[in-house]
Amino acid sequence: METVVHASQIKAARAMLDWSRKDLARLTGLGHTTIRRLESGEVSPRDATNSIIQQVIEHHGLEFIDGEGVRRRSDEVKAFKGRDGLDQFFDNIMHAIRKKKGGDIAIMIRSMDLLIEALRMTPDDNLKQFDALGAIANVKCLFSEVPKSSFIAPPAFEFRITHKENIGPASYFIYGDKYANALTEFGKLPQYVVFSIPATAQSHREHFSLLWDNALPLSSKR
Q1: Which pLDDT tens digit goes with each residue over 52-78?
Q2: How far is the C-alpha of 108 from the C-alpha of 202, rounded, in Å?
């Protein structure tokens, strides 16, 4: 159902999606000046303008609510925590890849050690998560730290090194039509927030591809 979009909602939605006014103008086909005037409350959106802004923002996983609010659609955002969360997150990846009948998994994470912590709970798991992922998909991993020793990975894994400023504190995974933040910290159970929003996954995949193309290959041993 179409609602009247308020200036505060537009600004809040941009902040949640990490968009600039230029980004919103490009996606809606509106002018940058128009976006600025709408957000300042200088003008109110006409019906057609209101509709296109609502459609674009909702396509990226948000919804407008009463009281001039905006939120992520709960059915498209899931959080996995604790020991059970690891298995649930891994199952989520496997299901998404099988549903798409293959494809790439893109992972951006600071180090190989953190990747191991993100995909298995104890050292005696024998990298079973790696083997399972590599059996159904090509996996591309971007690190900012060169491993201090040799490591083992399935042939389907590719590793590259990028500048540390390209990798923030939250690691992420892209698979199928999903994008997931992985909150990893040594000695603590990882937590995962999965966004089932195709447009979000696609935009992060495009950004990952740019970094991947400019990263240095890192060989692995099996």
Answers
A1: 999 898 888 888 887 778 888 766 888
A2: 15
* Residue 171 near residue 204, CB atoms below 8 Å: no
Structure tokens, 205: 């995949």
Q: Token pair of 167, please?
A: 């990798």
29: left (phi over 0), alpha (psi -120 to 50) or beta: left
Instruction: Name every residue whose Cβ is closer than 8 Å to that of residue 172 and which is 6 or more positions away in sequence.
Output: 107, 108, 109, 179, 180, 181, 182, 204
Residue of higher predicted confidence among 38 and 85: 38
Per-residue pLDDT reduced to its tens digit, 93-132: 988 888 877 788 999 988 887 787 777 645 555 567 777 8
The answer to whether 185 and 171 have CB atoms below 8 angstroms apart is no
In one-letter notation, the amino acid at residue 132 is: A
Structure tokens at 150: 């040799």
By C-alpha distance, which of 169, 176, 174, 158 is closest to 207? 174
DSSP string, 115-163: HHHHH-SSGGGTTHHHHHHHHHSEEEEEESS--SS-----TTEEEEE--
